[in-house]
Design goal:
Structural class: alpha/beta
Helix content: 40-55%
Shape: globular
Number of helices: 6
CATH topology: Rossmann fold
Strand content: 15-25%
Largest sheet: 5 strands, parallel
Number of domains: 1
CATH superfamily: Response regulator
Strand order of the largest sheet: 4-3-5-8-9
CATH class: Alpha Beta
Length: 154
C-alpha cells in the first residue's frame, strides 16, 4: 500500500477545554497492516479535521517519521515487519520520539500493561470508540502545549 498524506496539515480549532480559540496544526500517523483498522481510524480522525498520514507497515512508518514530526501515532499492536515498541524507542528520528497510541485488536490486561510499560502513550481497543480516539488526540494536544511552554521557559 502506498503512503498517503495531505500536503499541508489541517488547521484545527483546538478543543476549548485546552486552548480556547487558538488554532493548532495536528499531524497524526496511522500505522496498521489491517485495511479495516486504517479505514475506521482514518474516518474518525478526518471527521475531527485532523491531518492523517497512513502507512501499512513499520518500514513505511519509520521512513515517514524520519522525515517529519507527528503529534501522535496510532500504531497497530501487531505489525508484519516489527513491533510498535520499535517506534517508541527509535534509533534514528530526525525530529523527536513520537507519542505512540497502540491499537489492540485482541488481548487482555497483560497486553495493555505491557504496552504501557514499554512507554506507549495510550492503548485503544479496536474497534475504537470515537471518544477514545478524541481523548488520545486531546492528550497529545495538551502535552504538545506543555512542551511548547517548557521550551519557551528554558
Amino acid at each position: 500500500m502506498p503512503i498517503t498524506a495531505q500536503t499541508q496539515p489541517a488547521t484545527v480549532q483546538a478543543f476549548p477545554a485546552y486552548s480556547g480559540s487558538q488554532q493548532r496544526n495536528i499531524r497524526v500517523l496511522l500505522l496498521s497492516p489491517y485495511p479495516e483498522v486504517r479505514r475506521s481510524l482514518r474516518q474518525t480522525l478526518e471527521a475531527l479535521a485532523i491531518d492523517v498520514t497512513v502507512c501499512a507497515n513499520r518500514a513505511q512508518g519509520e521512513e515517514v517519521l524520519s522525515k517529519q514530526a507527528f503529534e501522535l501515532v496510532f500504531c497497530d499492536c501487531y505489525l508484519p515487519d516489527g513491533c510498535y515498541s520499535d517506534l517508541i524507542h527509535p534509533r534514528h528520528w530526525a525530529h523527536r520520539t513520537p507519542r505512540v497510541a497502540v491499537v489492540v485488536r485482541k488481548g487482555g490486561r497483560e497486553l495493555y500493561a505491557d504496552a504501557l510499560g514499554k512507554g506507549a502513550f495510550a492503548v485503544l481497543q479496536w474497534p475504537s470508540c470515537v471518544t477514545d480516539v478524541e481523548l488520545a488526540v486531546l492528550r497529545a494536544i495538551r502535552e504538545e502545549e506543555r512542551l511548547t511552554l517548557f521550551r519557551a521557559a528554558s
